[in-house]
Automatic annotation (TrEMBL), chain A:
Superkingdom assignment: Bacteria
Classification via InterPro entries: PhnH-like_sp (IPR038058), Phosphonate_metab_PhnH (IPR008772)
Keywords (A to Z) from UniProt: Lyase
Pfam families: PhnH
NCBIfam families: PhnH_redo (TIGR03292)
Protein name (database record): Phosphonate C-P lyase system protein PhnH
Molecular-function GO terms, alphabetical: lyase activity
Organism the protein comes from: Bosea minatitlanensis
Automatic annotation (TrEMBL), chain B:
Alphabetical list of Pfam families matching this protein: PhnJ
Domain of life: Bacteria
Entries under InterPro entries matching the protein: PhnJ
Native source species: Bosea minatitlanensis
Stretches for region Disordered: 298-350
Record-given protein name: Alpha-D-ribose 1-methylphosphonate 5-phosphate C-P-lyase PhnJ
Length: 200, 350
């Protein structure tokens, strides 16, 4: 058995760890730009940040197709997700309910994922973007529901043009994907309702 | 009596924490995250059978069950009151299934499940309001077909609602809707605020707390993130107005709260009291006295309860108000059916 075939454990206490993680996700998406932490002490598989793995354990199951980059899908992360969540791993980004992408990778674009339909905008993909850091990068401002006035975030390691993609995504409102930036055990929510301001 | 074995007093059924199974909670949690991402849009969800009838707050209970944790303090109100049947039952349900810490104090609660009211005390950041919603679709009485109302929301085709409000003005000179008054959320979706009196609508606008809405029978969840624009529909020449009353609360003298009319005898006697029981009790504990507090105690409408000595001792009592013995009182009343009462109220420009 190679190390890649070993599946690391999930939650040790699924009821309360998933509840706490969900509240962090709910706070992140209802108050965009605020830094939230998932406290769950899990050993994520290679390629997934602790916050990414916790979010997927909390939300993904057999009802939610998940899209992963090929390297992750064929590696420990794919096996881990199949085992713990029972989630289907799909090849087509547009079929996914949840997706994990690397913020620095060129593809896929946010527009490759499912934005929902005009009658069912809730059927869109939630895209978890793993970044090199949640602060210290190029700053931009947020406004909209959940943000009193303006809020400023500066995630590190996003590909060039990512804020433009976020703006295009926001222009589809009420359609569009919802983005969660993760790094380590921290996360920041950027739902489609958030308006992205100019870089400062 | 061997056939009917009574369980031991402390025997608890072996349910999962907060009654719902984890798969159901995940489904509700996913719906909640989409609901906060699209404020005011009604997300369909797989509403479960609950151990009480649909229409008794099953939507709100399922949301509370999906979000509650050991760190939470739960407050449940029914028409503003903590001590009415629905509120007491739901509070006990979560004490039993989730070992929940409960409170009647608005400021102590982290989750406030409510039927048809928003507390008078200002909500704080970090608090979560959970509304029980009987009819989530604001357009349903205008268009009975779900397939059609879904298109109307998809295309923001809300002319029919404006026509309805206009017809009210044409016929009666004013918009006659006094509860469940439709609102426009984030300049996009028309939303039913649940049957709260329109008095409470302005509290939703830019509220610092997260507001979640659950309709168990209609299988819909929707949400308002904090600091979200919530505009009550109106016309430039007929602006939105909330109710006001000709007299303050008879028990605590509050002039800024939503009042219920209570019939006190069979000779036409009546009084107006705060609908928010905790707000009223807090004010009385602080020494505020309404003009009818003495009468109410005498006629058995108000029952003196154990006073809080430390609060009563420091409370300033105004001289011109009648003072009754017992610093704190609690009112006895039943939960009114259906909509909040409006009789006796009159309109006043906001």
């Amino acid at each position: 058995m190679t190390a890649q075939d070993m599946i690391s454990p999930g939650f040790s206490d699924p009821v309360f760890q998933s509840q706490a993680a969900f509240r962090a996700l709910l706070a992140a998406l209802s108050e965009p730009g605020t830094g939230q932490r998932v406290a769950a002490e899990i050993a994520p598989p290679e390629g997934l940040a602790s916050a990414t793995a916790t979010a997927l354990l909390t939300l993904a199951d057999y009802e939610t197709p998940v899209w992963l980059p090929a390297a992750l899908r064929d590696g420990a992360a794919g096996a881990w997700l199949r085992f713990h969540c029972g989630a289907t791993l799909v090849d087509d980004p547009a079929e996914a309910a949840f997706a994990v992408i690397d913020g620095a990778a060129d593809a896929p674009k946010l527009s490759a994922f499912n934005p929902g339909t005009d009658q069912f905008p809730d059927r869109s993909t939630t895209v978890i973007v793993q970044v090199a850091g949640l602060e210290g990068g190029a700053a931009f401002t947020l406004s909209g529901p959940g943000v009193p006035g303006n809020r400023r975030i500066a995630p590190q390691g996003l590909r060039p043009g990512f804020t433009a993609e976020l703006r295009e995504n926001g222009a589809l409102y009420p359609l569009g994907v919802d983005v969660v930036l993760t790094h380590g055990d921290g996360l920041i929510g950027l739902p489609r309702s958030t308006r992205i301001g100019e870089a400062r | 009596m061997t056939l009917h074995q009574m369980p031991a007093e402390d025997a608890k059924p072996a349910y999962n924490y907060a009654y719902l199974d984890e798969q159901t909670k995940r489904m509700i949690r996913r719906a909640l995250l989409k609901a906060v991402a699209v404020p005011g849009y009604q997300v369909p969800f797989g509403s479960r059978e609950m151990p009480l009838a649909r229409g008794w707050g099953t939507g709100g209970i399922q949301i509370t069950a999906a979000i509650i944790g050991p760190a939470d303090t739960l407050k449940v109100i029914d028409q503003g009151a903590d001590d009415t049947t629905n509120a007491v039952s739901i509070r006990k349900f979560f004490e039993r299934t989730a070992n929940a810490r409960t409170s009647e104090a608005t400021e102590e609660a982290t989750i406030i499940q409510t039927r048809h009211r928003i507390p008078e005390a200002p909500l704080k950041p970090g608090q979560v309001m959970v509304y029980q919603v009987p009819m989530p679709e604001p357009l349903r009485r205008l268009e009975p077909r779900e397939a059609e109302t879904r298109k109307m929301h998809a295309w923001a085709e809300y002319g029919l609602m404006q026509v309805k409000l206009y017809e009210d003005i044409a016929r009666y000179g004013e918009i006659t809707k006094t509860y469940d008054y439709p609102v426009l959320v984030n300049d996009r979706y028309v939303m039913a605020p649940s049957p709260i009196p329109k008095f409470d609508n302005p509290k939703m606008h830019m509220s610092p707390s997260l507001q979640l809405f659950g309709a168990g029978r209609e299988k819909r969840i929707y949400a308002l993130p904090p600091y979200t624009s919530v505009k009550s529909l109106d016309f430039e020449d007929h602006p939105f107005r909330i109710q006001s009353w000709s007299q303050p609360c008879g028990l605590c003298g509050a002039a800024d709260s939503y009042l219920d009319e209570v019939v006190i005898d069979d000779r036409g006697g009546r009084m107006f009291v705060c609908s928010d029981s905790h707000y009223c009790e807090t004010r009385r504990a602080q020494g505020h006295r309404g003009t009818m507090l003495g009468d109410a105690a005498a006629s058995g409408l108000v029952q003196p309860s154990s006073p809080h000595p430390e609060e009563a001792a420091g409370a300033a009592v105004s001289k011109d108000d009648p003072v009754v013995s017992g610093a704190s009182t609690s009112i006895l009343r039943d939960a009114p059916d259906g909509a909040p009462q409006d009789e006796g109220s009159r309109e006043q420009r906001m």
